[in-house]
Design brief:
- This protein has helices spanning 61-72, 75-91, 98-131; strands spanning 3-9, 12-17.
- The longest helix has 34 residues, at 98-131.
- It has a two-stranded antiparallel sheet.
- It has a domain at 61-131.
- 46% of the residues lie in helices and 10% in strands.
- The chain has 3 helices and 2 strands, in the order ββααα.
- A hairpin with a 2-residue loop joins strand 1 (3-9) and strand 2 (12-17).
- It is mainly α.
């Protein structure tokens, strides 16, 4: 019989002749049947049940509010909410969000200091302009 087509599967090439079955036993070059010919001889598939993922603790909402207020420029609100959130998290160990509350505190203090310095610079500029204004 002459080969009619060549069929490629992944890395193996097999020639299918007319009248032959596609699912014929797999043999090596010497003509011996390989493990693929006997599905029972193949090792079982590896793996198992999905791994267990622990349930995360609920987030303290004030910690998130502290960070949002601090980033939005309301530093005093972020500082107040951050301190309250850290106290609640310390008292209730089943809550998470201490890092968010701490970030809200840091950003809130930085924003408050920056706004205070800008206001002081603005007032100093106004006083300087008033004292050095030309008199008519």
């Amino acid at each position: 019989m002459q080969p009619t087509r060549v069929r490629r599967r992944h890395t193996r090439t097999e020639t299918i002749t007319r009248g032959s079955r596609v699912n014929q036993p797999h043999t090596d070059e010497a003509g011996h049947e390989t493990a693929a010919a006997h599905p029972a001889a193949m090792p079982p598939p590896q793996g198992g049940p999905y791994p267990y993922y622990p349930v995360s603790k609920p987030m303290n909402n004030l910690a998130l509010v502290a960070l949002i207020l601090s980033v939005s420029g309301i530093g005093i609100g972020g500082i107040i909410c951050g301190h309250i959130a850290r106290k609640q998290i310390r008292e209730n160990p089943h809550q998470d969000g201490d890092t968010l509350a701490l970030a809200g505190l840091i950003v809130g203090y930085c924003a408050t200091i920056l706004v205070t310095l800008l206001i002081a610079a603005y007032v100093a500029f106004i006083i300087f302009m008033i004292n050095h204004a030309p008199t008519v």
